[in-house]
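Human: My hope is that you can spare some time for a protein that puzzles me. I am handing you a single protein, as its sequence and its fold in token form. Could you go through the record with me and say what the backbone is doing? Take your time, and here it is.
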Amino acid sequence: MKDIIIIEESFQNAKNLNNFLCNRKINSQLQKINDLKKINFPKSVLIGSEGLETMVGGKNNLFKLSRSIGSTKIIILKSSSQEYKIESELGGAYSKFCFPNFDESIYELLINKISDQKFSFADPKTHQLIHLAKKVAETDVTVFIHGPTGTGKEVVSSFIHKESKRNEKPFVAVNCAAIPENMLEAMLFGHEKGAFTGASTANKGIFRAADSGTLLLDEISEMPLSLQAKLLRVLQEKKVTPIGSHRDISVDVRVIATTNRDMVNEVKEKKFREDLFYRLNVFPIETTNLFERPGDIIPISITLLKRHVENGQQIPFLTKETQDLIRNYTWPGNVRELENVLQRALVLSNKKVINKNDIMIDDMLYKGNTESNKLFKQAAQG
């Protein structure tokens, strides 16, 4: 992570920006311009207001100052502009953010520019979840992640793998609900050539493909009961037996399972084996609905917009009205619904700014929905 150097006397919001970045676990510090010449900050990012250029005697002098302290990137913030835009020079080494006022969207765009963080979050609930994920990543225990659809269970699984000692080995994900029952066993455990009709070649299976790495069993609650017993044996003995073979093959796999169902109820109704549930539920992690962690909405929105803008285009700004609008909606479809809405907004907007009129929600989602969503619809149409 690069050090972020904010020139303290160059603009009024310097302290607020520094606090914001520090709260997001980004290495940020305030410095007075006269003190910079005494310190070296290799590969740092220098941030100041438009007045910073005047203070040092022009843009060229600012470049010289940046090089003298080892900084590789300069970001100038112009908060008095009547329009939203980002100007870049020198291959992105110098950027100017122009906007009317500081708000959360500006801060998030800035983080996106300066940070190499792999995940976007700001809500205290998500900070707690990530803390748990980092702790369990240090171990090899089995993890069971449960939560509603679209709440980032696979994202958390991938994070655990990347933070673990297995991070240079394969991360293999299989959706147990997406594979036909008669094919799932062969895909998981492998098969020999000629083991069944159509098996023209041998296949080592997903467990062996993930050997020494991490295997994600997504939506494990959809796995047929007949296969659950075989999975339990593999987890206990750490061996697989390909279909058509009598030879056990050892595997070293860290297993993460996910579900959106109430597993205690699934066990009570005999839809899921109790012994397998306890074998998987060594370290439970729960993901929550997006509306329960409103602090994540703007950071996730910026990340989603970055994913869908065309190469070379800037990430659009979100106006304050747009930010208020998407914060106050309950997002019954969670992150997947938010992503759909933002993709529509990119189509409807001028590509530089997303206004509240660019936010379009499916009418069907309001039927029988909460009062807050009705107010959302009225605001969006207003």
Remarks:
- The longest strand covers residues 73-78.
- The mean pLDDT is 89.
- The radius of gyration is 25 Å.
- The chain has 16 helices and 15 strands.
